[in-house]
TrEMBL record:
Keywords: Signal
Signal sequence segment: 1-22
Name this polypeptide is given: ThuA domain-containing protein
Record organism: Fodinibius salicampi
SUPFAM superfamilies (alphabetical): Class I glutamine amidotransferase-like
InterPro entries, alphabetized: Class_I_gatase-like, DUF6807, ThuA-like
Domain ThuA-like as annotated: residue spans: 442-662
A Pfam family: DUF6807
Length: 668
């Protein structure tokens, strides 16, 4: 069905689809998606979490399919646990580099799309959580790791209600069950296990203390718990917290000054060796149009108040610089190991705190209660402080991240082991990604032109796609002979790429019918630039491409905006892509297309644009899109006029993403 009014065209553009239903293309039982090479680098690795971005890789999952990761060793494939998460537009695959990986070596992994496994049995994940209505408790193999308290915790009887607090970690357990943290000690009622407040801040001209709750200047409250995760590789949660100014001149004397997001991951890294690995990420965003400045002060930030069992006689502390409890305060360190007595079989338990090179003022200065502090009793307190000696201004509209890792264990660890754990966190193995989506595929590049204008770029486009074939291991045939369009011949191809075809490109009805049957049988179509100018009297072809050529503005520099960054053909592009090209205007747009790119018409000089498309689209016009069509899939871009485009790696990546999606056989 063709659109019949300007109103319908406008509706189409404003209702861009951001997802796809499962296609009907028949798929093999197993298809390789990507290959990963993990490089240990200069450090030995042991049961190390690793991750690889899947950005730009079409996963192509249909109903009844799943992704499986295999390690390749001496030609053998071993299935290993893996997990996918999504941070914004970026899909990330995570797994554990099991066992020992010597320095200077590498390991190979293969991601496949396969038939879903039979899950009729028990399908409990290794890392799980329980919610008791006040706290979220994370566990590995039924052993408690940590508890995140989201409900307000009142202070002890007789203590000011100002000390009420939510949004902290307590208890933190060792693998053998020792509680390492504490809250509300009588010497500091505002201490809450593991927490992350700021002591000296300036907000809208007011000095606000979010740490010393009893002063009544500020507090921190849990807001929401939007995400919880269970899995065989990791489990965790995301939580939002509000830093509240209690001195604001508002009707209720309160104002949120700072938003904070916690991202917690508990890794199923090495439970057999008796350790927990916990990643803690704090993302800070000013909550108003006013900045918030964290003033330089001796204690604030990511903090631990340890169990009351630990003091000068029962606990030790060692930093990566060799400092201890007597001389470590206000020094800098990548890691700090804190160890003390416990009622476990090992007799001691500990926690290794690690900071990340990307943090503000890395390596942050430390706040350590020295020997004799707190009367020499119950005096193990520690924090990484990114603003101990200099202010840190948080500007509105910006996001600031602090990343830490905790390794929790029983017994003792050596400094060399602590350094190895930090290297895994701060200098992780490098993961090299090689797409396999197109491996062993075959495509036909069709370049037939009828009478009329013929683009000079055609040989360049063929050469560029052939180079992609060499790089990504797929076969490229090129033709301008319509006699190749027979049902039998087209069965060889996973995609047909119409590159700069124009005007009449078929000679017989049988050739047209072969193309139609190819698409109805689950074939795939990719169109580049003037392909929309082909077969201008054939409505079916208009629908396949997504529209038919109307006219274009003069060749010029203009701005292309990305409408959808989830697609492999656009995910890598800047939001505003400035390029030289012809701004194509198509008519008879298929209402099912999903728009990927559009022209910013305010940057296009065109004396006729007020007639069309200006009356319909205003300041925007679609330039690239994708859609499912009669059992197959179709991707088209209007861009690609000049010869130079086919030497442009960004434009070629745009074309590659379209081919990958067309061949991938499923939704993104």
């Amino acid at each position: 069905m063709m659109l019949k009014s300007a109103k319908a065209l406008l509706f189409l553009f404003c209702t861009v689809s951001m997802s796809l239903s499962a296609g009907s293309i028949a798929q093999a039982q197993s298809q390789e998606i990507a290959e990963f090479t993990v490089h240990a680098g200069e450090n030995e690795r042991l049961n190390t979490p690793v991750s690889a971005s899947l950005d730009g890789i079409p996963l192509g999952l249909q109903t009844g399919q799943e992704l499986k990761l295999y390690e390749i060793t001496d030609g053998r494939e071993e299935l290993i646990a893996s997990q996918i998460d999504a941070d914004g537009y970026d899909k990330t695959l995570r797994w554990i580099l099991k066992g020992k990986t010597p320095a200077g070596t590498q390991r190979s992994f293969l991601l496949k799309r396969e038939k879903e496994s039979d899950r009729s049995g028990d399908d409990e994940k290794a890392v799980q959580f329980k919610d008791d209505g006040k706290s979220l408790i994370l566990m590995v193999e039924d052993k408690k790791v940590l508890s995140y308290r989201y409900a307000p915790t009142p202070p002890p009887e007789g203590v000011s209600e100002l000390y009420t607090r939510s949004g902290y970690i307590h208890p933190l357990w060792s693998p053998e069950g020792e509680v390492i943290t504490r809250i509300q000690p009588s010497d500091h009622y505002h201490h809450y296990g593991i927490w992350n407040p700021w002591t000296k801040t300036n907000f809208e001209g007011r000095e606000i203390d979010f740490w010393n709750l009893g002063d009544g200047e500020g507090t921190v409250r849990h807001k929401s718990l939007p995400t919880t995760i269970e899995g065989d590789v990791y489990g965790g949660f995301e939580a939002f917290l509000n830093h509240v100014d209690l001195k604001a001149e508002t009707p209720d004397s309160e104002k949120v000054a700072l938003n904070e997001k916690w991202e917690i991951k508990v890794w199923n890294a090495d439970p057999e060796q008796g350790i927990w690995l916990v990643d803690f990420v704090s993302r800070l965003n000013p909550a108003t149009k006013s900045p918030l400045t964290i003033k330089a002060y001796r204690y604030q930030g990511f903090s631990l108040r340890a169990t009351e069992k630990w003091d000068d006689d029962t606990a030790t502390l060692l930093t990566s610089k060799g400092k201890d409890k007597s001389n470590g305060n206000a020094t800098r360190a990548r890691w700090t190991d804190i160890n003390g007595v416990s009622e476990t079989e090992s007799g001691t338990s500990g926690i290794l705190f690690m900071t990340h090179p990307g943090n503000q003022n890395f390596p942050e200065q430390l706040r350590i209660w020295p020997e004799g502090a707190n009367g020499g009793e119950e005096n193990v307190y520690f924090n990484f402080n990114p603003a101990q000696e200099q202010d840190w201004k948080l500007k509105p509209g910006n996001s600031y991240s602090l990343k830490y890792r905790m390794m929790v264990y029983d017994g003792k660890i050596k400094p060399a082991d602590a350094e190895r754990y930090w290297q895994d966190f701060g200098n992780p193995p490098r993961v090299e990604v090689q797409k396999k989506v197109l491996k062993d595929s075959r495509v036909l590049v069709y370049t037939k032109n009828g009478e009329g204008y013929v683009h000079e770029n055609i040989p360049n486009s063929i050469e560029a796609i052939e180079e992609l074939g060499n790089k990504y291991d797929f076969t490229v045939d090129a033709s301008e002979d319509p006699a190749d369009f027979t049902e039998e011949n087209l069965k060889k191809y996973d995609a047909l790429i119409f590159s700069n075809t124009n005007n009449d490109i078929f000679n017989t009805p049988e050739q047209e019918e072969a193309l139609q049957n190819y698409m109805k049988s689950g074939g795939n179509f990719v169109g580049i630039h003037s392909t929309s100018g082909a077969e201008r009297d054939w409505p079916w072809f208009w629908s396949l491409v997504g529209g038919t050529f109307h006219r274009h503005a003069p060749f010029q520099e203009f701005t292309v905006n990305v409408t959808d960054k989830t697609h492999p053909s656009t995910s890598f592009l800047p939001n505003n892509w400035v390029r030289e090209d012809e701004c194509y205007y198509l008519k008879q747009l298929n209402p099912n297309i999903n728009v990927l790119l559009h022209a910013d018409m305010t940057t296009v000089e065109d004396e006729e644009k007020g007639e069309y498309p200006g009356q319909v689209y205003g300041d925007k016009f679609p330039l690239a899109w994708y859609h499912e069509f009669e059992g197959g899939r179709s991707w088209y871009t209007t861009l690609g006029h000049s010869v130079e485009d086919y030497d442009d790696p960004v434009f070629i990546k745009h074309i590659l993403g379209g081919i990958e999606w067309a061949v991938s056989g499923g939704s993104l």
